[in-house]
Amino acid sequence: MDLQGSVERFELSDIFQLLSVSKKTGTLGVQRGEDVVMVYFNRGDIVYACNPNRRLKLGDLLIRKKKLTTSQLERAMRIQRELKTRKRLGELLVLESFITRKDLEEVVRQQVEDVIYDLLRWETGNFKFYENKFPTQEDVTIRHLHGKPDSGECQEIGRAGTNPEETSCV
Length: 170
Description:
33% helix; disordered C terminus; 5 helices; five-stranded antiparallel sheet
């Protein structure tokens, strides 16, 4: 499915609805200047979204929600730098028992929803849908339930591969 165009001609909520109704799997890339947002769909459901230029990182959000201390974050980041396998930050935080799996999933869900809601405010830019393409595998994902993504109906659905803190997206 070749789906591409400009945000000026097609509202993103309509594009999301089209991908949802047609149960498409793949990645919707949206670009406005230097900003690029990637939204992953699985059988029409939004399962993940990222904006590498996001304002609030995982650790900062966990600290803000009082789920993590600054010293715990610094320790996990030090461990992350020292490991040859480069485990993701969220995975390390859970393994070190600094946060629970539920804490991680809730914060990632909030980040994804924030990315989607910010994206829906874009009035300019270009989009392209890459069918059956996922640039990364994400462990913590969410699912949009029904209708347009701006309806506010999102919920967590589980795990798919690796933890989202490894990429620059979360």
